[in-house]
Every structure is written in structure tokens, then in C-alpha cells.
Amino acid sequence: MSVNKEIKRVTTHILQEMKNHGEKIAMLTAYDYSMAAIVDAAGMDIILVGDSASNVMAGHETTLPITLDQMIYHASSVVRAAKRALVIVDLPFGSYQGNSKEALNSAIRIMKEAGAHGVKIEGGVEIAESVTRILTAGIPVMGHLGLTPQSIYKFGTYTVRAKEEAEAQKLREDALKLQELGCFGIVLEKIPAQLAKEVTESVHIPIIGIGAGRHCDGQVLVLHDVLGINKEFKPRFLRQYANLYDVMNDAIKNYIGDVKSKDFPNEKEQY
Q1: pTM
Q2: Please, are residues 189 and 210 in contact by the beta-carbon 8 Å criterion?
Q3: What is the pLDDT of residues 164-217, one digit of tens each?
Q4: Which of 34, 65, 143, 153 would bridge 178 by S-S if both were Cys, CB 3.0 to 4.6 A apart?
């Protein structure tokens, strides 16, 4: 039996109940009103306004360039569309690292100006002070461990994280620390499935995986990857559910052809 059939709005409490009942949690990204409305109407549990907007919406190579103002713009667009899903927003690079007061101010702006329901923040014990400060303001926080794209220049690569025991052990400890601080859930990105299974079983809060295997409490992917709007990005962990690039490309070519051949607009399409 699904625990969330008749609910108006998914909450962190409902996500916890879903984990307790063994019901998997579905999470996708969205960055604008029109797409978020479709994702929400389909019955999504969580919509993540990811800093991946830096890549898929703005064309940057990494997630680093996107600003807090831009994240608030994307988030407010998504919040207007989401009637059911819990809307979580990434704190972008530079808006929380090394300064817990700035982290709190960033999170407050996202909640007040965008109307979001919580924030996601990358890192473990090193951001404990920021997490604590945000939580004391009553703002729900989701953690993010494993491959943390905002640290890409430190890692130097987007390969699988925590394959070595030392890094795996730190990840286990970080997950327990984030739970202890009060995070309502954690995203695990691109780590070995067995490690993700261990972490999922060792904490009582929901664990959402991306490239972290089937044993997590839920899964998250980037909407544009799932729909096949991005042609280039095809990692092992991605299942593409549509090929919208070709559908849209064909439609646009047909439009161009109809305009050029004077077929559009026809008699019925004018006043």
C-alpha cells in the first residue's frame, strides 16, 4: 500500500514514513514553471531545483558559475508550479562554504524569496556548522555526499567516488554526522552500490541515490537527461525514458519547412 495516495503536499515527515514503510521515493530536477508543472502533475515526490541548471539551462561546463540570485529565480518558477512535490533547492557554490552566517542568509533568501520547502548542501563534517545554523532557523536541510560536483576542481574528475576504504569510511561517518545534525535526508552521488546499501541501512533518514545503486530509499536524475533532451550525456546510471531531442528537432524542422513552403499559415490559421 502506498502511504502517499491522497496527500496534498509531500513533506519531510511523509518522506520519513515512506522510508519506514519501504516505499521508494521518486525525485527529479526541474528549473522552470512549465516543466515543473508536468513533473508535479505526474506525481513526483520531490522536485530538486538543482545547481545543474548551470549546465542544462545556462550551458556552463560546471555547476560553479550559477549564482544565488539565479537559483532563486529558477526555484520561484518551480514553486509556482508544484502543487504536490516537496521543492528542495541547491545552495550554489560560494553561498555557504566556510561561512555559516552566509550559509544561513543564503538559505533564508531561498525560503523567503522563492517559497521553497528546504535546501540541499554538499559536504560532510566540514560544513557541520553551516548545516546546524540553517537548521536552527527551522529550514529543512538535505545533505549530499559522494561525488559533490561543486568540488570538481578538487577531485579533478567526475569518476566514481569512495572506491578506496579511507574515503568510504569518511562517507559513512559523514552520513551519520549529517543525520545527527538533523538533516531530513541525504543524496549519495556516484558511489559503489554496496557502500550506498550500507549507508542506507545504517541511518534512519531517507537516502536518495544517483548512480548509487538500487538499495537507496529513492532515486534522483536530471530531467533533461531522463527525457533525452541532452544528447551527449549518457553515463551508466542514466535510464533515458524518451528521446525528446529528436521529437523536438523534427517538429521544429517541420515548422521551418511549412513556413518556407508557404504552407503555414493556411486559410484556417488566419483572421
Answers
A1: 0.95
A2: yes
A3: 999 999 999 999 999 999 999 999 999 999 999 999 999 999 999 999 999 999
A4: 143
Output the nine-digit C-alpha cell for 158: 567526475
The owner of cell 555559516 is 100
- Contact of 145 with 188, CB cutoff 8 Å: yes
Q: b vs e for 64-94, b when ≥16 Cβ sit within 10 Å of the residue's Cβ? A: bbbebebbbbbbbbbbebbebbbbbbbbbbb
CA 194 to chain centre: 22
Local structure of residue 161 (DSSP, 8 states): P
pLDDT greater at residue 156 or residue 65: 65
Angle between helices 165-181 and 128-136 (to 10 degrees): 20
Catalytic-labelled residue, pool 17, 189, 232, 269 = 189
Between CA 63 and CA 85 the distance in angstroms is: 24
Identify whether 189 is a catalytic site residue: yes
Reported as half-sphere exposure (CB side, CA atoms, 13 A), residue 50 has a value of 25
Contacts of 233 (CB under 8 A, 6+ apart): 225
